[in-house]
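Human: I hope this is not a bother. Would you mind checking the protein record under this note? Thank you for your patience.
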Amino acid sequence: MTIKIDALDSALLAELARDPRTPILELASRLGVARNTVQARMKRLESSGAVRGYPPNVDLQALGFAVHAYVGVELDQNRMDAIVEALRAFPNVLEVHATTGRADLLVRIAARSQQDLLAIMQQVHTIAGVKHTETMLALATPIEYRALPLVEHSTRNPGPA
């Protein structure tokens, strides 16, 4: 479901991104609107699925997971669902994307070391239907995942980005 957002929604999302635990009254004060307006906007964003939650932003490197890799997986197309479910069981798998091109899946993995990553990759290779993988190590992350610049842009310029 696609919803239309405006500058107030964008500002609310920016405030929540800075501190998801900000009280409603404080959000209302910062945004210059009534508490009920903030509550209604939050409810609309959440019920539409545009906002899926308010998880903490975890620094995996600070927790000892210093090696991050992107793995392109070529697979037997008839086994994609089973392979995705097998990957879901790996706690080190952060996300999986179905893709076009040579690889069928792009898998993001966090590991404590290169040896740890090797062990994970050996397990991935045991999944029935996995044909080939190509691993790329992330050396740095100069831009982390972000959605707010696009949200803010789209509220200022409603046409294509």
About this structure: The CA atoms of residues 23 and 73 lie 43 Å apart. The radius of gyration is 20 Å. The first strand starts at residue 67 and ends at 75. The first helix runs from residue 7 to 18.
